[in-house]
Design goal:
It comes from Ulvibacter antarcticus. The protein is an alpha/beta fold. The chain contains 16 helices and 13 strands. Strands 3-2-1-4-5-6-7 form a seven-stranded parallel sheet, sandwiched between helices. A six-stranded parallel sheet has the order 10-9-8-11-12-13, sandwiched between helices. Helix 5 runs parallel beside helix 6 and helix 9 crosses helix 15. The longest helix is centred in the middle third of the chain and has 17 residues.
Length: 427
């Protein structure tokens, strides 16, 4: 049995996709000969919480906690809403208030690489003492926040223990990095820290092939792609919506606003009155005002349900019940590496996926491989319209059915097997 110290910020009751990756690995590690020890903040500031995840934490694992000083708590005294959106990565380049500009400048230039940098020094001290009494075979850091990699890097240097750096998202190429109002010195420091982490780790794990290619330009450290995945569930029973539901699960940022889709849906609704009465656009999660304004502009407000944040179990039920599942990514080259965690849950739901994003997105490769839907890049309104009409015709006649393939390898258990094999190979 190999013992692994996992340093992560997001842990139940944190909500959203960030918490699920290592929660799921930890659930299966013992089956593959890995004993996990999880290190988390004692008093974190989570922008969203989901208590349903608490019940998924294995009862027999060791969890270490240490206090963290959260600057977002202080910022929340000025604007709780803006603080939560910034800490979630929901940053609009348009219509920024003076307060938001100041908060972004402070976040980007005074907290490098991120707002949890103050947790590094006390964590190194705490974990150094722990490792003297309870040694481990490997240290694993999960980012973002990327400051957690700095904890692992210092522990590796002082102890000689092998270190795996797991990147759920890229660092300097993440879509919101350019929105942090960085000065040249801060931008340079980010890149230096990124390179230092990549070159110091014994192994790097990323969630997409594009991120691997980007990192290979910076380091010769071995890099492995282990995507996010889906957790098998016998609880969710599909009860298909009677309406022609097109559902998006998760946050909808201003820059993820699919105006071409709204335009196409509005055109079909004006041409086919029955389509208009059947259509139901379901948005579960935080939705930006810009997205809602676009929906209203195209006359789709009456067909739209903005549900707000839902628990993970509720999200899974929505996915299984929907006629069509909508997956959206910001149409910019730097988002080609982003593979949202919900894609894999969409695969498990076995409902047709309608995905939109940048050209050469890693999302498209998975959708093509699994035959789970269609991916559209920009400026393909006629093709998009024809596809939606085809889906609607199936819905009205035979019923919408998808015959996907090769999704089993994206199950959390199989991914945990892959991660466990990598750990044993490294130590």
């Amino acid at each position: 049995m190999k013992r692994a110290l996992i340093i992560t910020y997001y842990w139940p009751p944190a909500g959203g996709p960030g918490v699920q990756r290592w929660l799921q690995f930890v659930k299966y590690f013992n089956d593959f000969g890995i004993e996990p020890v999880v290190y988390i903040p004692e008093n974190p500031h989570y922008p969203m919480t989901d208590n349903s995840f608490v019940y998924e934490v294995p009862k027999d694992i060791k969890i270490l906690k240490h206090p963290i000083k959260e600057p977002y708590r202080l910022a929340g005294l000025f604007s709780k809403k803006k603080t939560n959106t910034i800490s979630s990565g929901i940053i609009s380049k348009k219509k920024q208030s003076l307060l938001e500009k100041v908060m972004l400048y402070i976040r980007g230039n005074f907290f490098i690489p991120d707002a949890r940098i103050g947790w590094v020094r006390p964590s190194v001290s705490f974990l150094s003492n722990y490792l003297l009494e309870q040694p481990v075979d490997i240290i694993i850091s999960s980012g973002p926040p990327h400051s957690l990699h700095l904890i692992a890097m210092q522990l590796q240097k002082s102890t000689g223990i092998k270190w795996m750096a797991d990147f759920r998202d890229p660092w300097t190429t993440i879509h919101y990095h350019a929105s942090l109002r960085l000065n040249k010195a801060s931008e340079r420091k980010h890149k230096q820290l990124e390179a230092r982490v990549l070159n110091s780790a014994n192994c790097i794990v990323v969630t997409s092939p594009t991120t691997k290619r980007e990192f290979e330009m910076i380091t010769e450290t071995p890099i492995e792609v282990i995507t996010n995945g889906y957790a098998a569930s016998n609880v969710v029973k599909t009860q298909l919506d009677t309406s022609f539901s097109i559902s998006h699960i998760g946050s909808l940022l201003s820059e993820r606003n699919p105006k071409e889709l709204w335009k196409v849906l509005a055109e079909i609704a004006s041409e086919k009155p029955l389509f208009k009465s059947d259509l139901c656009i379901q948005l579960a999660g935080t939705v930006s005002d810009d997205v809602l304004a676009s929906i209203e502009k195209f006359g789709l407000s009456e067909a739209t349900k903005s549900i707000g944040y839902v628990s993970h179990s509720e999200a899974l039920q929505l996915q299984h019940n929907s006629q069509v599942l909508l997956l959206l990514e910001i149409d910019r080259p730097e988002t080609r590496a982003i593979i949202p965690g919900k894609l894999f849950e969409y695969l498990a739901a076995k409902r047709p996926i309608l995905a939109m994003g940048p050209f050469e997105s890693d999302i498209e490769d998975i959708i093509v491989e699994t035959k789970s839907g269609k991916f559209f890049s920009a400026h393909k309104e006629e093709v998009l319209k024809a596809h939606i009409l085809n889906l609607y015709e199936q819905y009205k006649t035979t019923g919408l059915v998808i015959e996907s393939e090769n999704i089993e390898k994206y199950s959390r258990r199989e991914l945990s097997r892959h991660m466990s094999d990598l750990i044993r190979k490294l130590v």
